[in-house]
Write a structure and sequence with these properties.
Strand content: 25-35%
Structural class: alpha/beta
Number of helices: 4
Mean pLDDT: 87
CATH architecture: 2-Layer Sandwich
Low-confidence stretches: none
CATH topology: Transcription Regulator spoIIAA
Strand order of the largest sheet: 1-2-3-4
Largest sheet: 4 strands, mixed
Distance between the termini: 37 Å
């Protein structure tokens, strides 16, 4: 797992690459905690996440809640990988506060699937 951090006009973007699994949970939690101490608005770019498990979803859920308590914002980017979207839906997180991008990602996947069926 690798993190790349950069600042935009009004937010910090944290690009995550690799696996977000229990083996990397401590590092992910530390990175989220550090960003919550430094920044008011954090956008997590998970486009290059290759695998995720329930520990990742739990840490994200905790980060969303902590941010809200601190009057800060943590959000997921719109470019979620399909396997992450499907996993979050299967685990029941698509309706959890902070996971709105999962529903958007699912709608985009369904649209792509429909287009493929129509083209094929």
């Amino acid at each position: 797992m690798h993190f790349e951090r950069f600042e935009t006009g009004d937010a910090v973007v944290v690009k995550v690459r690799g696996e977000l699994t229990v083996e990397y949970a401590k590092g992910f939690q530390a990175a989220l905690s550090e960003e919550l101490q430094k920044s008011d608005r954090i956008l997590l770019d998970l486009e290059n996440v290759t695998e995720a498990d329930i520990s990742c979803l739990q840490l994200l859920c905790s980060a969303f809640g902590t941010a809200a308590k601190l009057s800060k914002q943590v959000s997921l980017g719109d470019n979620l990988p399909g396997q992450f979207v499907q996993f979050a839906i299967d685990a029941g997180y698509s309706r959890v506060r902070g996971f709105e991008a999962v529903s958007t990602g699912y709608a985009a996947m369904e649209e792509d699937n429909e287009q493929s069926r129509n083209d094929g």
